[in-house]
Amino acid sequence: MAPRKIIIDTDPGQDDAVAILLALASPEDLDLLGITCVAGNVPLALTSKNARIACEAAGKTHVPVYAGSKAPLCRPLITAEHVHGQTGLDGPTLWEPDMPLAAGHGVDFIIDTLRREPAGTVTLCTLGPLTNIAAAFNRAPDIIERVQDVVMMGGAYFEVGNITPAAEFNIYVDPEAAEIMFRSGAPITVMPLDVTHKVLATQPRVEAIRALNSRVGTFTADMLDFFERFDVEKYGSEGGPLHDPCVIAWLLQPGLFAGRHVNVEIETRSELTLGMTVADWWGVTGRKPNALFIGDADADGFFKLLTERLARL
After folding, report:
1. Residue segments in the chain with a per-residue pLDDT below the cut of 70
2. Residues 62, 82, 84, 243: which is the catalytic one?
3. Are 277 and 264 contacting, i.e. CB atoms less than 8 angstroms apart?
4. Among 157, 200, 201, 203, which residue's beta carbon has the most beta carbons within 10 A?
5. d(C-alpha 240, C-alpha 247), whole Å
6. Quick one: 141 exposed, middle or buried, by C-beta within 10 A (0-12, 13-18, 19+)?
């Protein structure tokens, strides 16, 4: 089979960078057409820089990286330096990328690519706030039916929120964008906190990556050493959750995951629960399912896959 065509929409973030590395390490499975960056974990200037750093760390500078939306659709930007550090990739020694940004806006790239490629052949992998995707759907609604599917990291149900008591960060930053996507009719697979909090970068798992004795192995392990400190302190867990790589792992080995088709609505009006993903897990509303909401993962299998693929870079 030909590799699956994907676009990664992202706001790196250490875990975003690991997701990019996993995709770049899997060219026989995934044809990464381009990376579009959005403001989220850190401002756009840094997310678009960090995506290029990840590509250079992997030695894969042929993938175009586009700058996209610098703010949510209709709200001020909220960032997460308290989690990811001031650079967004704190941990390893960083550098100024030689790789230039691709010319043009990320939203235009999404629209043009979906119109150019055969319908039903491009998967959107969203790792940050959904601003770019919603802007593309708003501007060019004809592309929605051309999307093969959307695989996204965001939201929560049983795990509730990580930025507010009710909301996960990616959805909270731009809830209106999330609402547009969930109501678009595009096929959606969701990697919420419910599953990502089961995929923990424990010390033995991080050391197995460091033991690859490669540039990518050291770079990844250094990122995870920094990244885990916030979640270990907050949750008392044995390691930080690797949220965004779950999106790529799902495309590579969906058998590592389990979930159910449910209806998901986004709260956009309440001050108390703004950005909440209201997942009808028990089917009590009668609303039509609009997403495959993942709830469980084989963590050992996930880290085996990740480590084996990183060893290729």
Report:
1. 231
2. 243
3. yes
4. 201
5. 16
6. exposed
Q: Would you say 80 and 161 are in contact if contact means Cβ atoms under 8 Å apart?
A: no
Measured distance CA(256)–CA(251) in Å, rounded:
10
pLDDT at position 239 is 87
Nearest-angstrom CA–CA distance, 167 and 213: 38
CB 138 within 8 A of CB 176: no
CB 174 within 8 A of CB 129: yes
Catalytic (active site) residue 243 = yes
Structure-token pair, residue 213: 């004795």
Sequential DSSP letters for 232-259: HHHH--SEEE-TTHHHHHHHH-GGGEEE
Strand partners, 201: 240
For residues 274, 136, 294 and 254, what is the CA-based torsion angle, rounded to 10 degrees?
-160
Residue 76: count of CB within 10 angstroms of its CB: 7
Angstrom distances, CA of residue 152 to CA of 187, 217, 225: 11, 25, 24
Token pair belonging to 163 = 């930025």
Q: C-alpha angle 222/59/136, rounded to 5°?
A: 90
